[in-house]
Each structure stands twice: as C-alpha cells, then as structure tokens.
Amino acid sequence: MGKIYKSTNEAGDMKLLVLTSRYTATRDIISEDFGRQTRLFSALAKRGHTIHFYCADYRKRESRNTTLHGIKVLIRPFGIFSAAGFCSGLVRQLRKEWYDALVATSDPLWGVVGRWAARKAGTRLVYDLHDNYETYATYSLPFMHVLERKAIRDADAITTVSHSLGRKIAPMRKENVFVAENGADMKLFRPLPRERCRKALGLPARAKLIGYMGSIQRSQGIDVLLEAFAGLRKDNPDLLLVIAGRFYGDEEKYLELTQEGVRYLGSLNQGEVVKLINACDAVVVPNRKNAFTEYCFPYKVVEYMACNVPIVATRVGDVALLLSRFKESLCEPDDAEGMAAALKRQLGKGRIPYRKHVRGNTWDAVAGEFEKALAVIGRRGKSGPVKGKGF
Fold first, then answer.
1. Would you give the distance in Å from CA 110 to the centre of its chain?
2. In Å, how far are 35, 162, 306, 331 from 299, measured between CA atoms?
3. Largest CB tally within 10 Å, which of 132, 235, 372, 382?
4. Domains along the chain?
5. Beta partners for residue 179, in sequence order
C-alpha cells in the first residue's frame, strides 16, 4: 500500500465528523465495535486526529451519545418521519464544532446527505466508498443514482476500498481518488497452534477441516462451497466444513447448513474467529462474480493471510491481486469442481507465508493511506461557513 503518511506531515491533526449508518449488514458497529468505520477511524484518532461519529439508527431509532475508543459517538434516529430532523441536526453539528471535513461512508444515502450538509455548513467532504454502493437497497430510491454521482463528482476527495472500485468510478472521477483498503489487527490475527485452537472450539483433533467465516449468502458463493465440499467428502468421509457467521437477509430459507460433515458454529467474536482460522487446514473465500464482489475488499482475506493458513479464493476483484503471488490459492468463480480441486491441493500443505505480504494492511497503515485524502483538502481556515447551497 506504499508509504505511511504520519499525521504530523501532510494531513496535519484534523477534526473530522464521520457520517455513517450504525448498522452494516447484520452488525451493530458501535455496540459490537465492528467494521471498517470503527477500526479505520480509531486508527486515525491514534495518529492525532479528533474524530466524532454521527450515526444513523434506523433500527432501534435511539437518540443518545456515547464513546468508543475515545471517539465521541452521536447516535440519532433515522426514518421517514425523522429524516428531516436527522439532516438538520447534522448541519447544526457541523457548524457547532467547526470540523475540518465531513466524512460520509457506509451507504450511498450518506454520500448524498453528506454533500448537501457539507455545502450548507461550508465544510469539505470526503466520500468513502467501502463497497460498490450501486448494489445497496438505498440506491433504488428515486433519483439516488443521479444524486450519488453528484456526490462522487463534487466531493473534495474520494477514498475507495479497492483498486477495482477506483477504476469503476474513473469515468466520473479521476482526481483526488485514493485507495484505502480494509485491514486487520495483526496482533490479534496471527498464527496459533492448531491443536490448541481445535481444543478450545471443541473441534476434532485429527480430522481435516475446511473453514469459512463471514456473511452467509449465495451471492458470496456459500452454495458453491457446499457443492465443492460435498464432492470432496465422497472420497474423504473424515473431512469437515466448519462455517461461522450470520445469515444475510432471508438467506437461511435457501441455504441449509445441515448436510453431512458441515458444522455451523453461529456468529463468533473476533478472538474465536482467530482460533477457528488457525484450527483449519484450509480456509475459503468462495465469492461469486457479481456487481458486489468484483469491487469489495473482504476483511477475511487479510485475516486469513495474517494467520498463514492455506487459502482457496475465487479470482474476483482485488482478492486476485492480493493473492497474485500464490497462484495455487486461486480458482475460478462459480465453479464447484475447480474449487474442490484447489481445496484438495491446499489441504495437503502446511502453513504458507502469506503474512509478510499484508504488512501494509494493518489499520494504522490503512489510516496512513486515508490521510493522503486529508492532505489534499488540508485544515479548515477561520473564514467562516460559506453561504448555504442546495443540491
């Protein structure tokens, strides 16, 4: 990921308000301390920046203030009847605290709202694209595609989670676009003794274990993995597939994890995820090729690599770039037979030295990449807010 920029250099110590959803997929980023937002901006706070969160709560509709890793968190209700109050409260907060920039992230709606609020308050906007937002449900709202493209064009700086996503938006935006990938806590995700990890999780000591950790949905290839596993198990009845994670949406109706040899452990905390990775003989990223997976950057890839456990991943998006030095770790998407063949190869190997190739994916290093976007906009002057503008 290149040179790490310290906050005392190009970016300076800045004050940022992060506009985000409280929930990403199935997780509560605040109460569970989970995800890109908490990890990236906690790392920026450690580098000397002042970070506040302005979180939209569209499930519990809570209105309260809290803290997370020393970051001030403002949770505000968001819905049909509270949207106006949410947006006006955002502008008031921007004017009250005199932030150097508003960072909009986690949903295309916040890119649109962030553009409007930043213009009203006379501050700068950094738009963080941590997925292909065109795949999000909110993108189907009336005029959203037009307004979100305006946010991409008008933001003072753009950060993308992957190189492939940066290329995707290039027809709309070429300047001041920076890649800030997802990272991992390298102190937590590290090689551990396999036997000890299996014992801690109640897994058999001598079986061959294939592992998958993450969101459970067909769009990310769980059905392909199940098919590949069924084929492998015909010749190896002691083979087990261990899955941990949460079903996305109503996927539980369509994906049954009860076939012979499959163990579903439910949702695990991060410490248990580390143990499960290290308990396995091989771990999988089975992504299908679609509009979401081509531009995402799965946390699990870096976490797997940090543990040096043999990986089988489909050749989709930046995953293929990360594993380009490890050709035997890659297989083609939507191909159960090819995945089974790759798993058969990887199951016979011991540890693989992936870890040294993701040293640039610590959250501190990712924060350094994000600071390149902050360096472009610089610190806010004292000239006062500009006259309010609309969409």
1. 16
2. 9, 12, 11, 19
3. 132
4. 7-183+363-377 (3.40.50.2000), 194-357 (3.40.50.2000)
5. 160
Taking the C-alpha atoms of residue 193 and residue 266, their distance in angstroms, rounded to an integer, is 23
- For residues 54 and 145, what is the distance between their CA atoms, to the nearest angstrom? 23
Cα–Cα distance between 201 and 275 in angstroms, integer? 8
DSSP 179-205: E----B-TTTS----HHHHHHHHT--S
Q: Among the residues of the chain, which ranges form H helices?
A: 36-46, 83-97, 108-121, 144-154, 163-168, 194-201, 222-233, 270-279, 299-306, 317-322, 336-347, 363-377
CA angle 100, 122, 151 (to 5 degrees): 90
Task: Evaluate whether 168 touches 295 at the Cβ level (below 8 Å).
Answer: yes
- Nearest-angstrom CA–CA distance, 182 and 159: 12
Write the CB contacts of 131 (distance below 8 Å, at least 6 apart in sequence): 161, 165, 292, 295, 296
What are the phi and psi torsion angles at 3 (to 5°)? -60, 140
What are 194's two structure tokens? 């396999």
Residue 18: count other Cβ atoms within 10 Å of its Cβ.
27
Q: How far apart are CA 156 and CA 163, in angstroms?
A: 19
SS3 at position 327: helix
Instruction: State the chain's maximal CA–CA distance in angstroms.
Output: 73
Tokens describing residue 70: 């020393």
Residue 10 has a pLDDT of 53
Averaged pLDDT in 10-residue chunks for the chain of 391 residues: 36 90 90 94 96 97 96 97 97 96 98 98 97 96 97 98 97 95 96 97 96 94 96 93 92 86 94 98 98 96 98 97 96 97 94 95 97 89 40 38
- How many Cβ atoms sit within 10 Å of the Cβ of residue 42? 19
Question: Rounded distance, CA 355 to CA 352, Å?
Answer: 8
Residue 11 has what pLDDT? Answer: 55
